[in-house]
């Protein structure tokens, strides 16, 4: 497996800053918004967005997490989990900011949206993805994107924003 860092910590920090700034400058009504991270990649990014909203607007948005594995349409490719979703607040008539680290085919987002609707009917769902690697199989388009990069189906993008050294890596499957 070939591995290469495509954005170092300095570049990743700049992309992250611009990504979060775009969300803050948008027309999202943060007084009526909730933030939902898609497990696992969207969890930390959702927390960073929540923190930025709190610091910028003094609004403490509720935050939750979706584990959409039960809603996947590729039943043999991922381990199913029945208790990993954490949405302990009402999403009815809320603006949902759905957060993930990487979007490719759009199937993870579709599965996540299906699960969200099991919890209620939001006013709107806005998709925020850190990396858009293209390759869409479904008509799903992010509202907020950190960076678009071209990557093949056999290339996996890993986003690490958890530690002091932030970076984006690309893995090529053999």
Topology record:
Elements: E1 2-7, H1 9-24, E2 33-38, H2 41-57, E3 62-66, E4 95-103, H3 107-119, E5 124-132, E6 144-148, E7 155-160, E8 167-172
Parallel strand pairs: 2-3, 2-4, 4-5, 5-6
Antiparallel strand pairs: 1-8, 7-8
Task: Report what the structure shows.
The protein is an alpha/beta fold and 174 residues long. It has a single domain, classed as Rossmann fold (3-Layer(aba) Sandwich). Helix content is 26%, strand content 30%. The chain contains 3 helices and 8 strands, in the order βαβαββαββββ. The strands form 2 sheets. It has a 5-stranded parallel beta sheet with strand order 3-2-4-5-6. The longest helix is centred in the N-terminal third of the chain and has 17 residues. The protein is globular. The termini are close together.
Biggest sheet descriptor: 5 strands, parallel
Note the overall shape. globular
The sequence of SSEs as H and E is EHEHEEHEEEE
The low-pLDDT segments are none
Q: What class do helices, strands and sheet pairing give? A: alpha/beta
What fraction of residues sit in β-strands?
A: 25-35%
- Strands ordered across the widest β-sheet: 3-2-4-5-6
Cα end-to-end separation: 6 Å
Helical residue percent band: 25-40%
Taking Cα atoms only, what radius of gyration do you get, to the nearest Å? Answer: 16 Å
Q: And the CATH topology? A: Rossmann fold
- Shape-level CATH architecture: 3-Layer(aba) Sandwich
Q: What is the total domain count?
A: 1
């Amino acid at each position: 497996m070939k591995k290469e860092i495509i954005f170092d910590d300095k570049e990743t920090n700049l992309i992250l800053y611009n990504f979060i700034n775009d969300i803050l400058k948008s027309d999202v009504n943060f007084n009526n918004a909730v933030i939902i991270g898609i497990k696992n990649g969207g969890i930390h990014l959702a927390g960073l967005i929540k923190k930025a909203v709190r610091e910028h607007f003094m609004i403490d948005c509720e935050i939750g997490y979706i584990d959409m594995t039960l809603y996947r349409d590729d039943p043999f490719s991922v381990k199913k989990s029945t208790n990993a979703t954490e949405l302990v607040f009402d999403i009815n008539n809320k603006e949902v900011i759905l957060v993930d680290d990487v979007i490719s085919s759009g199937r993870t987002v579709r599965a996540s949206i299906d699960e969200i609707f099991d919890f209620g009917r939001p006013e709107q769902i806005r998709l925020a993805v850190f990396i858009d690697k293209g390759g869409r199989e479904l008509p799903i388009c992010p509202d907020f994107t950190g960076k678009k990069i071209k990557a093949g189906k056999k290339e996996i993008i890993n986003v690490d924003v958890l530690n002091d050294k932030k970076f984006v890596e690309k893995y090529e499957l053999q």
